[in-house]
Amino acid sequence: MLAIAGNPSSTLPRALSLLLLVAAGVMAAQLTWQVLDPDVRPPVTADIPAAEVAPAEPVSRESPLAGVAEVPLFGALGERATPEPVVAPDTRLRLRLIGLVAGDAPEQGKAIIAERDSPEQLYGVGDPVAGGQARLHRIHRDRVILERDGAYETLWLPRADGTTSGQSRNGTAPTRPAPEAAPSASADEPRIQRSEWLEDPERLLESVRARPVIQGGALHGLEVRPTRNARQFQQAGLRPGDVITSVNGMPLSAIEDTDRLFADLAGQSQVSIVVEREGQALPLSIQLID
Q1: Is there a contact between 157 and 151 (Cβ–Cβ < 8 Å)?
Q2: Which of 68, 155, 165, 191 is the most buried (most CB within 10 A)?
Q3: CATH number for 202
Q4: Could you say which of 109, 129, 156 is where a domain stops?
């Protein structure tokens, strides 16, 4: 015992010899397996990370033609193009086309239609009109097509000279009346009653008819005409058919909150607008009087 403890240098070579002997035995065993049966592999004892032995995802064996079955070969429902009516005479229904709002697609447009003496309403393609007697079929820039009892009829948008269907629609431009002379410098400045036009917007809508003017798919302005009390309309410096394009320097297309606009105007002494009259831009400064 004392001899072993006192001579550690003789222990180390023995340990190394033992390790080398074990390693040689393992290598000999592996070599024997490869000689006797090359296709058989000895079990691997090394630790393998779990991620490397995870089962592979099953390979999809879906037919390459499976996607074809989902393709609507005859078109999806509702995508069929509606043919343009060949014959669409003027409608005899007591309807008035007040205005049109164009959309990105024909089926996205809107039409403002009044039935007899009823207030105007907003209609879309497919909506029933005239108490269900007809259906709105298509919307154009100057007219709408109605479908009634399987036939098509046309409802025209009134022109600036008051003509509608069949009147001056022979392909030549109708003779437009000469514009009324603008107020001279010696005439009274344009003015409106604050209480009648601004403090009661509903009364304003009853006195003035506004038709949206669409250019390039966006709102360009509002074409205004008097429905009652044309004298007040003229006192404001307006003429039938004027297109208001801006209010206080702000284009109409940029106005989002009309309630805020009326509230701001109610506290001012005048309002500046720009109108298009006979193709010319005309600035107007309208006094707001109490």
Answers
A1: no
A2: 155
A3: 2.30.42.10
A4: 156
